[in-house]
Amino acid sequence: MTEQEKRMRRCCFTGHRPQKLSRAEIEIKADLESAIKEAISSGFCTFITGMAYGVDIWAGEIVVRLRESNPELHLIAALPFPDFSSRWSSDWKKRYDELLGEVDFVKTICPAYNAGAYQRRNEWMVDHAAHVIAVFNGEKSGTKNTIDYARRCGVQVETIQA
């Protein structure tokens, strides 16, 4: 299978950190799960998470849970740089570490922190997917930049209200 053929079966996630969300976590996670199941029904079997706390980790956890009954599902972790979770709370670090242990492949985009690392990670995810599931509140942010980039690239974007 060529890289382009693989891309057509990949979906990535983008979304805000919990403090920027206006809806309850349980509601957003339910909408994420519905969107992921719909993507699976449409033929997507590989999902890419940027591993940030909040939406990225929730989406990855959902894919891992769904994979228990569907071994055809795969999860890729796209890290902006090593140890980017080092300043998080212990709870989020624990979830990050657990999820990282469940992924099928880890892609580290930059060797160390730099001002463009997160944007380069987001562009890498879009460049390797045919569909984006975005939890978005409408404000300027990395999530908006990712959505705008995907649209410029002709990648389909599905938006979930944040």
Going across the biggest sheet, name each strand in turn.
4-3-2-1-5-6
SSE string? HEHEHEHEHEHE
Percent helix among the residues? 40-55%
Radius of gyration: 14 Å
Q: Tell me, what's the shape? A: globular
- Uncertain residue ranges: none
- Give me the number of helical elements: 6
Taking the alpha carbons of the first and last residues, their distance comes to 36 Å
Give the overall pLDDT as a whole number.
97
Structural class: alpha/beta
What does this protein structure show overall?
The chain is α/β, with parallel strands linked by helices and 162 residues long. Helices cover 42% and strands 20% of the residues. It has helices at residues 3-7, 25-41, 55-67, 90-100, 117-127, 142-152, and strands at residues 10-15, 46-49, 74-79, 105-108, 131-136, 156-161. Helix 3 (55-67) links the parallel strand 2 and strand 3. The mean pLDDT is 97.
Short description:
The protein is of the alpha/beta class and 162 residues long. The protein is built from six helices and six strands. A six-stranded parallel β-sheet has the order 4-3-2-1-5-6, with helices on both faces.
Can you lay out the helices and strands and say which pair or pack?
Layout: H1 3-7, E1 10-15, H2 25-41, E2 46-49, H3 55-67, E3 74-79, H4 90-100, E4 105-108, H5 117-127, E5 131-136, H6 142-152, E6 156-161
Parallel strand pairs: 1-2, 1-5, 2-3, 3-4, 5-6
Helix pairs in contact: 2-3, 5-6
